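Customer ticket, subject: "Can you confirm the structure for Protein kinase domain-containing protein?"

Message body: Hello, I'm evaluating your service for our small team and ran a test protein. I'd like someone to confirm that this is what the system normally returns, since I don't have a reference to compare against.
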Amino acid sequence: MKSRFSSDSIFIQTDSQFWNDQWIQMKESDFKEDYFLIYSHNKKTYKNKVFKRHGPIIKKVKKNGLELWCDITNAMIETIQIQHVGLGLRITKNSYCLELFGYIDGWFKELKKFCIQKQIKNLFIISNKLGCGNFADVHRLIRKSDQKEFAVKIYDKKSHKFDSECIIKELEILRKMDHSNVITVLEAFESQKSVFIVTELLNSGNLDHILSKTVLTEDDAIKGIFKIIDALTYIHSKGVIHRDIKPENILFRKPNLEEMVISDFGLAEYHNDEGQYKYHRCGTVGNMAPEILKDQSYDYKADCYSAGIIFYQMLTQVQSPFIVEDYQETIQRNEQGLIDFSVVKSSSAVVNLLKQMLELDPYKRCSVQQARSNIIFKKFNRQTIIIKRKRFYQDQTTSSYSSRSSSIYQSPMNQPSPLLPISPTYKYIGLQNLCSIPLRLRSHDRKLIPSPNKCNSGANSATLQLKLKNKNSNFKINQKNNITGMYSSICSNKAN
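Agent reply: Thanks for trying us out. I re-ran your input and got the following:
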């Protein structure tokens, strides 16, 4: 049957066939077998046939025993209904259309994660905007059938900054993730004007807000960083470098330290042995590994350095290791890795791990796998020990959701880095005008350097607004934060 994919779809795959007879490296026991009715053009009727599925792979066996398979990743999927036959599933890829009739609920529920759907407004209500950036806006999404809420990242296909390659890669990486401390993608839609990525809605704030309001004990910091390291170990096992680990991208599924979730894979990339990438310089100043700023090759250990910065912030509360009066000097200190460890008032074992994660030389720096095995996490690695949860509570708040534009600091590979701009001098804030250690920059205070590449330009600089805040000794989130504000705190201004 002729494909119903519109010609302006970014997911067209004209260079591949639907069915393949080449050997596929997957265990037969991994496949689930189901019977469906399909239309036989020879007999002009519907017949019962066996199909097998594992993830996005569907298999069938011909009469001669030949086994065929297809990968329906980014194929269009929709439910259909034909009189006297019943409810069916239509999967369209290239110029081929596969229609299956029968009990299709289970297949549709699993396959919609890997496929693309049309007509999002038939199923969902796109509600209020939660955040915006240069590349995507984030909205609350309400499912019509049960009023359940989700988050949807909306990309404008008409924008001159729309990058289909980056979106397809981000979606592909998100589909690989299946970890309790990594954000879950649920489905994707495409219209003539937009691409929609639907994820879970995380309702309990982000780590940036927690650090600005709360004093963490050493034990709490250890519990929190272990969750981040454990999730990064999983992400790296999938061959992926996140490249934007920072407090704003650490969300909370539930209001306790064990429910941390790494989000925003807009800058994520597959690791390669050369350590060179299409968009090489990526991240947020203050959380980036020095080798990235130096335009050197880098690997998974860049994420370990960023996690080390978060660990440092947890242990020192709101202090930053790099922020000084002049923003250009802040970038230079980040590049040079100048960190004052004397302000870390923790046990020697914790400080030793912190120094290993923040080692300037990436060859000497520990990996997240090595960090995970550190002695300070011994009780977390023993599954027989129950970790007591210390909760903090929040009413009617929504966590941050970062769009790709909130943290881009990058330049194309094999091109010289742009000159560092001179920004307004930022003064220290202290009582009675006395100098003190500067507070950590909030996400909306961070100035990001634009890239020469139009599709991957950085955000405009935001006005620095540092205020002294009273620190509580518990985990309660500021009740005055509204939903839109929490999302907007990590979103940059629109680029010119």
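A couple of notes from the result: Residues 6 and 399 are 35 Å apart (CA to CA). The first strand starts at residue 32 and ends at 40. Feel free to reply with more questions.
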